[in-house]
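Weekly sync, protein design subgroup
Attendees: M.S., D.O., the rotation student, P.L. (late)

Item 1: inverse folding check
M.S. brought a backbone from last month's batch and wanted to see whether the design step gives back something sensible before we order anything. D.O. pointed out we never logged the input encoding, so this time it goes straight into the notes. Structure tokens as presented (387 positions):
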């Protein structure tokens, strides 16, 4: 464990990756993660590795594919629109069973959106994002210290199960500064040994290895084998944090930076005599459904707090399985939660009020949308909504 020092989140992440044995990085600039490639460009060569500023996000993820095929600890980072461009490469990495680390320092969306920190990429990360049947492991830090230490965990899990791992971080977390320390000794990748599947120099009778993302007639068997692996991961690799969950009436569920705002709400609630607990999933996939189901069964209500329009809440509802009311306290497109507004939502969940709670259908009540197309311009369409 190192002494505590003051670091920016993105820089802690990049340094943590190099300390964890990352020796290949390919990326492309985009706010709010630019300090990651900047740090890598200045420090990777000294660590004996390679840094490439690719011509695009698409090029970067395919470079990671090539480097990962050699067994090198390889990484790329980007922010939301850039990660969208990487999805084809990510699904190819999953198909080829290649371990690597992908970092998404999220910003507001959809589309180009804004550079404000957000959590709107939850579905993209936890549902695969690309085509086909696959998963990637998704880790969600909520502090600069976790951001710096998760690359080691991410590489270890990716190599253990031969699959990509993603660190999903809020944009603000990448930009904020906190004191932190590293909880692991620097990894020498030369001491890790070689994978028997990795592409290497073919000489002196050495076995020739090939890495394929497309396996032809064996696709069904490959997908089923991966499903067995995913099932094992769901049984053994779920991670979470609990606060004041032993005897709570309302359970807050949040990840990343939102969970820290929830902790403020938990402390404020205690001052008012309200029993409020916090459940923070650290692995977004595999999602800790079993433990959440156990905790929620003992509460009066569950309030999901997220910086999106309602994505995490879907996994929360699946875990709770209708046995406890689930409410949403949402801050989409770069909105930021705070303890007071979350506490308002908690009170509403207990009293039947609606302050601080988001319901898409209720928001749509009384709303009309007129879409009148001028067919004289050669466009075809209908009048939609309204009169």
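Designed sequence read out in the meeting:
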């Amino acid at each position: 464990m190192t002494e505590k020092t003051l670091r920016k989140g993105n820089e802690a992440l990049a340094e943590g990756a190099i300390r964890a044995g990352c020796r290949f990085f390919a990326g492309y600039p985009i706010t709010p993660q630019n300090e990651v490639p900047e740090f890598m460009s200045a420090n990777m060569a000294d660590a004996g590795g390679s840094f490439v500023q690719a011509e695009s996000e698409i090029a970067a993820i395919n470079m990671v594919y090539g480097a990962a095929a050699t067994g090198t600890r390889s990484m790329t980072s980007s922010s939301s629109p850039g990660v969208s461009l990487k999805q084809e490469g990510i699904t190819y990495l999953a198909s080829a069973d290649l371990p690597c680390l992908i970092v998404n320092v999220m910003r507001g969306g959809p589309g180009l959106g804004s550079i404000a920190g957000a959590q709107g990429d939850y579905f993209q990360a936890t549902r695969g994002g690309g085509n086909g049947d696959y998963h990637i492991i998704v880790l969600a830090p909520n502090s600069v210290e976790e951001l710096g230490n998760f690359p080691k965990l991410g590489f270890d899990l990716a190599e253990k199960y031969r699959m990509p791992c993603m660190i999903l971080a809020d944009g603000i977390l990448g930009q904020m500064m906190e004191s932190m320390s590293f909880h692991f000794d620097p990894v020498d990748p030369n001491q890790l040994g070689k994978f028997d599947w990795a592409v290497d120099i073919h000489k002196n009778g050495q076995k020739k290895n090939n890495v394929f993302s497309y396996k032809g007639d064996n696709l069904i068997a490959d997908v089923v084998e991966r499903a067995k692996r995913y099932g094992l991961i769901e049984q053994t690799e779920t991670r979470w944090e609990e606060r004041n969950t032993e005897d709570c009436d309302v359970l807050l569920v949040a990840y990343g930076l939102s969970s820290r705002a929830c902790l403020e709400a938990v402390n404020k609630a205690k001052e008012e005599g309200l029993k409020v607990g916090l459940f923070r999933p650290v692995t977004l996939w595999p999602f800790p459904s079993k433990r959440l189901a156990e905790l929620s069964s003992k509460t009066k209500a569950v309030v999901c707090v997220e910086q999106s329009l309602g994505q995490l809440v879907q996994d929360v509802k699946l875990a709770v399985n209708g046995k406890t009311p689930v409410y949403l306290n949402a801050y989409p497109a770069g909105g930021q939660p705070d303890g007071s507004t979350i506490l308002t939502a908690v009170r509403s969940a207990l009293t039947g009020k609606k302050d601080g709670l988001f319901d898409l259908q209720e928001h749509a009540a009384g709303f009309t949308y007129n879409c009148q197309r001028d067919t004289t311009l050669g466009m075809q369409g209908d009048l939609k909504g309204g009169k």
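Discussion: The two ends are 67 Å apart (CA to CA). The first helix runs from residue 9 to 19.
Action: P.L. to compare against the previous round before Friday.
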